[in-house]
Amino acid sequence: MNTLSTSREINLCREAYISEEYVTLFIKYTGDFNSLVNELEYVCAVKVSEGAYIASVRTANYTDFINRFNNIFNIDFSFPYTLSAIEPVEAANITQFHGETYLNLTGKGTVAAIIDTGIDYLNPQFQNPDGTTRIIGIWDQTIESNNNDDPIAFFGTVYSQDEINRAIQVSNQGGNPYDIVPSRDELGHGTNVAGLVGARGLNNVIGSAPECEFLIVKLKEFKTSNLKLAGINDRRSTPIFEGIDIYIAMRFVINYNPSPSTKPMSVLISAGTNWGGHEGITSIEEDINFFSTRKGLIFVTNTGNQGASLTHGYGRFLKSNTIQNLEIIVGSNENNLVLMFWVQRPDVISIEIISPSGEIAKPIQSGLVSSKFEQVNLILENSIINIAFLSPEFASGNESIYITIKNPKAGLWQLRLKGDYIVNGVYNLWLPQRPLIQLTTRVINPNPYITLQAPANAQKSITTSFYNQNNNTIAVESGRGFTADNRVKPNLTTGGVMALTTGL
Questions:
Q1: pTM, rounded to two decimals
Q2: Delimiting residues of CATH 2.60.120.1290 domain(s) in the chain
């Protein structure tokens, strides 16, 4: 991987990246992006690989930036990710291989990289029998350091294995280990996942790979400015993480273990999002496909828990110039609602939005331009509809329409769809994943399939769903395949109810 940002560029951009006065964008551009925007004082960018930049744009200048450059290069905002279900190992019978005569698969000599909420590094489950840590490094994105000039982990703080061992030693002597390594897992999810992966076996809790080493990334939570850009105005009580942070975290763990051929590494991402076209072409999924070609490196994702969330709508036109309806119930106190509509190429579909009072927004018309942005005011509803229309969308070539309804009135909203040009006829609609919307907000006549979340759609990831291992029945909440482009996912399923694992 060729990372070309200098220390000076990194230091200049660090403050903008974490500042609420800036929004974060992922830029794909084959030319020199920094020279292109060099005269714009409101943009700062870090080059993370050839043709890929993380750009921080001052929020007040975002519209100007989009108007200038949207048709020049591919621009993605940071998708909202939420935590997924935890899956146990007992039902998969993995522990049978720990003492098997010929295999003896305990994870020894391998690294489990976990991108999550951190880890309780003081827990003996993650230590060797001599009390030293099995964690080779922790990147805590939530703790800022002025001494950080890492070209990839350019924000937050990286703690080495030596520092973690010193912190454990201080703790054993009655001192404060957090003076040395202040990273904590306040939510416990990352510690739970690490226990399932590699708990040592104390107190009858044993992971899949009890002798593996760990490489940990603690994700920071979503910036409010980026959350609003994604169309989410209310954090609620659920932790929300940034897709771009996960993207950078993947590159960090790969770079931290540069020789997976001699020390194989699995990268576990236990968060997911409904954003994207569910074809495995988000930025994270494209990176998974690219890096999975390396010997000794695999990525493990899960389908999430949106199978019964009532957030997916599906339909199919049989011919052009016909009309179909999609209906959505919006619950009370929904501040914003994002509707993500995707149409398979080369089909073209236009949309007319009808509010609960019967007010009709002007149709979202297809056109020859690659992108356009519109705003519609609904007078009777006191609502504003922002529309981002891409046809073709850069990565897939499909038609995508992102509709954000600000202050949507509770009740029945209708999407009247017209098939302007139909060959395949298939279309999909996704609402945000269930933690991000009210319980009563739902699609009428929902479809439980294609409810697996990104990055589980990646072609080369090992994708798991879950079932109820206590009675061997389907868990209706588990995300389901296929992908939107009809590939078989998940690759396997594991038990996912009442998992016994490591706690805080």
A1: 0.93
A2: 312-443
